[in-house]
């Protein structure tokens, strides 16, 4: 009997050790577009900033609940859905001077890593725009995880980065007599993302 007990205890200990050693399984998350935002800001004539956003965007996200450092992301933005509140300007942005949506309809992002320090961190990845792929780093803020009244688990993030549009072949602008440009070269990208754990 003692031998059986010792064997049983040994098996329980080994099983527990294996289970503890196994990493938690990543799960899929759905993007809640109605509570998310993909936007940008760019300085106009060195005196003001014009804001814009995109109405159509999607993402494939996996990661462990409550652990943003485990997350991986692949996102796609439909550039033709740009909206700056001015139809003439939006048409210009869709043209070959800027996004050239006939040739390059999407902007994509694929993450390569997440490093967190508490609720703040860095999201690194590859951004593809205008047929050019460059590494970018977003400043990331984790807003937390909650259970909503309908039985869903939700997580929230804010992220921002600044790119030089010239690195992506977006070079159109005009010089001002007093110096500076009609459209600045630095573009701020701003994200507000809400995710729902897939069931």
Structure description:
The protein has 199 residues and is mainly beta. The protein has a single domain (25-197), classed as Lipid/polyisoprenoid-binding, YceI-like (Lipocalin, Beta Barrel). It has helices spanning 2-21, 87-94, and strands at 27-31, 37-44, 48-54, 57-63, 72-78, 82-83, 106-117, 120-129, 132-147, 153-164, 183-197. It is elongated. The relative contact order is 0.18. The model is unreliable at 10-23 (pLDDT under 50).
Summarize the structure.
This protein is mainly beta and 199 residues long.
Instruction: List the helices and strands in order.
Output: HEEEEEEHEEEEE
How many individual β-strands? 11
Strand order of the largest sheet: 1-4-5-7-8-9-10-11
**In terms of structural class, how would the helical and strand content be classed?**
mainly beta
Quaternary structure of the protein: single chain
Tell me the count of domains.
1
CATH topology: Lipocalin
- What fraction of the residues are assigned to beta strands by DSSP? over 45%
Based on the structure given, which CATH architecture is correct? Answer: Beta Barrel
The separation of the N and C termini measures: 46 Å
Radius of gyration: 23 Å
Shape: elongated
CATH superfamily: Lipid/polyisoprenoid-binding, YceI-like
How many helices? 2
Tell me, rounded to a whole number, the average pLDDT: 87
Helix content: 10-25%
Write the layout of secondary structure elements.
Elements: H1 2-21, E1 27-31, E2 37-44, E3 48-54, E4 57-63, E5 72-78, E6 82-83, H2 87-94, E7 106-117, E8 120-129, E9 132-147, E10 153-164, E11 183-197
Antiparallel strand pairs: 1-4, 1-11, 2-3, 2-11, 3-6, 4-5, 5-7, 7-8, 8-9, 9-10, 10-11
């Amino acid at each position: 009997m003692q031998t059986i007990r010792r064997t049983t205890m040994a098996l329980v200990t080994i099983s527990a050790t294996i289970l503890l050693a196994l990493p938690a399984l990543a799960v899929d998350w759905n993007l809640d577009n109605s509570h998310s935002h993909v936007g940008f800001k760019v300085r106009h004539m060195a005196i003001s900033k014009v804001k814009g956003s995109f109405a159509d965007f999607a993402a494939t996200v996996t990661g462990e609940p409550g652990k943003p450092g485990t997350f991986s992301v692949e996102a796609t933005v439909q550039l033709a859905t740009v909206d700056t509140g001015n139809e003439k300007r939006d048409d210009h942005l869709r043209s070959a001077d800027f996004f050239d949506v006939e040739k390059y309809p999407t902007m994509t992002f694929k993450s390569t890593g997440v490093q967190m320090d508490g609720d703040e961190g860095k999201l690194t990845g590859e951004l593809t725009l205008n047929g050019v792929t460059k590494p970018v780093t977003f400043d990331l803020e984790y807003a937390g995880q909650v259970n909503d009244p309908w039985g869903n688990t939700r997580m929230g993030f804010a992220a921002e980065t600044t790119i030089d549009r010239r690195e992506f072949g977006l070079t159109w602008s005009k010089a001002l007599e007093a110096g500076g440009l009609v459209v600045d070269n630095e573009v701020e990208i701003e994200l507000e993302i809400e995710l729902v754990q897939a069931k």
